[in-house]
Amino acid sequence: MADELVFYTNPMSRGRIVRWMLEETGCAYRTEVLGFGKEMKAPAYLAVNPMGKVPAILHKGTVVTEGAAICAYLADAFPEAGLAPAPQDSSRGTYYRWMFFAAGPMEAALSNKAFGFEVPTDKQRAIGYGSIDDVLNALEQAVSQTEYIAGDRFTAADVYVGSQIGWGMMFGTLEKRPAFEAYWKRIGNRPAAIRAREIDDALVPPKA
To answer: Where's the GST C-terminal domain (predicted)?
Structure first.
């Protein structure tokens, strides 16, 4: 049991990104579904993640939180899945670049847009992402140059970046530019992505 991988999630959360990543690795894992509110803020879970948020994983005694960090960790923990360029590979830098672009500038810009917050033009240089247009233009260029975000091979960065693009277009926080639609079409129907969606959809509580 010491080697067990435990996945803490809620099917209506960013845990869906990690579910997809877990299914891509093919590793065995146990899911702990937590409700928003009391369950995530209970002492037992705060001992895992003091933020009281999901997703999180516990693997071989190590806790990892934050979606991008979990994806990067799993890619390295299960190298047989081939979900990260080798450290000496020239695409490793590109892989890190776009993984953490999505976790930083992209996440912040899309979240602000979703809540109707726009950075004043004269303050854009003081904020990490600049403007939403800067973010979308950079992202469009990234997904247009190669088949996958880090080159010609699917990686964990595609799971993370792709999830942000797929959700953004679904919920209207990201423009449906042709480049984004084409990229999502390339990766969104992978068998592991479909499996992950089916698992999480089955866990969503029925509407009252």
So the answer is: 88-208
CATH class of the 5-82+193-203 domain in this structure: alpha beta
Q: What are the DSSP E strand ranges found in 71-140?
A: none
Q: From CA 164, how far away is CA 180, in angstroms rounded?
A: 11
CA dist., res. 144 & res. 68, Å (int): 22
What 3-state class would DSSP assign to 3? coil
Residue 208 confidence (pLDDT): 63
Q: Summarize pLDDT for 99-117 with one digit per residue, the tens.
A: 999 999 999 999 998 899 9
pTM, 2 dp: 0.95
Of 11, 18, 149, 150, the closest CA to residue 74 belongs to 18
Strand pairing partners for 64? Answer: 57
Give the N- to C-terminal CA distance of the chain in Å, as an integer: 38
Which one-letter amino acid corresponds to residue 64? V
How far apart CA 4 and CA 6 sit, in angstroms, is 6
**C-beta separation of 81 from 25 below 8 A:** yes
- The CA–CA distances, whole Å, from 85 to 21, 70, 154, 156 equal 15, 16, 10, 10
CATH of 92-190, one of 3.30.565.10, 3.10.25.10, 1.20.1250.20, 1.20.1050.10: 1.20.1050.10
Which residues make Cβ contacts (< 8 Å) with residue 103, sequence separation at least 6?
66, 67, 68, 160
